[in-house]
Specification:
The chain is mainly α. It has a two-stranded antiparallel ribbon. A hairpin with a 3-residue loop joins β1 and β2.
Length: 489
């Protein structure tokens, strides 16, 4: 039975990965028919879903709550640091992997008709298969390295689909904005992976060595409380960037530039929940650090309130649904923080059982929001039909807030809390200044090594913007208002 589970576990991730590779090869060689591309994607999703269902049935039959599929150590760094490719099937990963493959199949069927005769039809489905591969790998990851690989595939496919309509400048600019935010989250996750290798005695990223050998949610972290706070804080930062929590909410409405099918499965169902899933995976860390749990609770609730307020003034349905998704994701993250604070106060067994609450909330919300996104185009037609039938705009509810406060709240919501401007001024601009300074230092160091210090006509080798003369900040292009702000709908 162990061999069967092993191959079923490998097939869960290998099926969508094989579809991605095959579509890439086919698109390089020829232009296939639409039915071929769609059927190939659906076959990969069905095979992967059948494989994860098979693992689940065998786990029930054998009474196992935790099954590890280890594909070996891929990198070994003396004096004992090793990086493993490992899949973990338990009560957290199996539902999330099944949900990912199921919703990718549903949205794939919807997209086959929605994207019919679109010039980028085959490119869309290749990127969609890449996303399914990344989501499945992240869902069943048994080590930090495997999670990071799936995390990166999800981010790459998301950004490329945000900029899918690359003939227009707005999608490309907004896709770049999403990519920059993802980079910050990825850096935090990568730093957490490095610290995990340093703090765990086995010097690897295996979740069992970090969180104990018990099955989720009955694990117990093996690190010290301060270590749990440090690693958990970095993971919380990574989750905030991936799930568009405060202060990274600005990229979420920009991501709606992509096709509606990708918006539905990315920012309504799966990708936006990946940060919350990460926090659930390392839930024992929250039970060890009250400060981390309190910060998670505050971040989740503040993000939920912010999204609920801002979402009420959006003028396009996709932005409204995206902020509605963010509201629920914030509540899920708040639930995780609250359970971490109260788990140790409850009788044995009760605290661990509460971790199923945010998991069920996540699964249910993903399904609901997917249906709302795919229903959105026809909903607008129905709304206009009702308006035409009654001869005027639909009635609006009156607000009990004072007029002055209501106006200020409206302005705050319309500008989305001024978060984009604050991040540009106090995060992005200092970041660019520091790296321009470092670039100049690198150029001077390369010139000194080449024996040509102070010669402006001699290009730098190995530094200074890839072999070009080092430019001063005043000579480099500065961002225009269109680069850092978004036109209101």
């Amino acid at each position: 039975m162990n061999d069967v589970i092993y191959w079923l576990g490998v097939t869960t991730v290998a099926a969508p990965a094989a579809v991605t590779l095959l579509l890439a090869v086919v698109l390089l060689a020829a232009r296939p028919a639409e039915w071929f591309t769609h059927r190939l994607l659906q076959c990969g999703n069905v095979i992967g879903l059948a494989a994860v269902a098979g693992v689940f049935v065998l786990m029930l039959a054998g009474g196992d709550r935790d099954v590890t599929v280890n594909l070996g150590t891929w990198v070994h760094v003396p004096p004992g640091y090793h990086f493993q490719l490992e899949f973990l099937f338990d009560r957290l990963s199996v539902p999330f992997a099944a949900l990912s493959l199921l919703l990718c199949g549903v949205i794939g069927a919807f997209a086959s008709r929605y994207m019919h005769r679109e010039p980028g039809y085959h490119r869309f489905f290749m990127l969609f298969a890449l996303f399914a591969t990344g989501m499945t790998a992240a869902a069943v990851a048994g080590s930090v390295e495997t999670l990071f690989a799936g995390w990166e595939l999800v981010g790459l496919s998301s950004v490329l689909l945000v900029g899918f309509f690359h003939e227009r400048p707005a999608p490309v600019r907004n896709g770049f904005r999403v990519w920059v935010t993802y980079r910050a989250a990825d850096a935090a996750l990568l730093l957490a992976a490095v610290l995990t290798h340093l703090m765990v005695k086995e010097h690897d990223g295996d979740f069992h060595h970090l969180l104990g050998s018990g099955a989720w949610p009955y694990e117990a972290a093996t690190v010290e409380p301060w270590q749990a706070g440090v690693i958990g804080g970095l993971l919380l930062f990574a989750a905030a960037g991936k799930s568009a929590l405060l202060p990274f909410c600005g990229w979420l409405p920009r991501a709606m530039e992509g096709p509606t099918p990708s918006s539905a499965v990315f920012y309504g169902a799966l990708s936006v929940h990946l940060g919350a899933f990460l926090l659930l995976r390392v839930s024992p860390l929250f039970e060890m650090s009250a400060v981390l749990s309190a910060a998670t609770l505050a971040l989740g609730l503040s993000s939920a309130v912010f999204a609920a307020v801002v979402g009420r003034v959006q003028t396009d349905i996709k932005s409204v649904l995206s902020f509605a998704s963010l509201t629920q994701v914030g509540v899920i993250v708040g639930e995780i923080g609250l359970i971490g604070l109260t788990a140790h106060l409850l009788p044995d067994g009760w605290g661990e059982t509460l971790w199923y609450v945010p998991l069920v909330h996540l699964l249910g919300h993903a399904c609901l929001r997917t249906l709302q996104f795919v229903r959105a185009p026809s909903l607008l037609l129905d709304y206009k039909a009702v308006e035409n039938a009654i001869g005027d705009k639909l009635p609006r509810t009156a607000s009990a807030l004072p007029p002055g406060f209501r106006l200020r709240l409206y302005q705050f919501s319309l500008d989305r809390g001024h978060l984009d401007a604050l991040l540009n001024e106090y995060v992005a601009r200092p970041f660019v200044v520091v790296f321009r300074f470092l670039d100049r230092l690198e150029g001077k160091w390369a010139d000194w090594l080449n024996g040509t210090p102070g010669d402006p006509a001699t290009p730098s080798v190995g530094g200074g913007l890839a072999g070009r003369p080092t430019a001063s900040p005043s000579s480099l292009p500065h961002p225009t208002p269109a680069d850092v702000t978004e036109a209101r709908p």
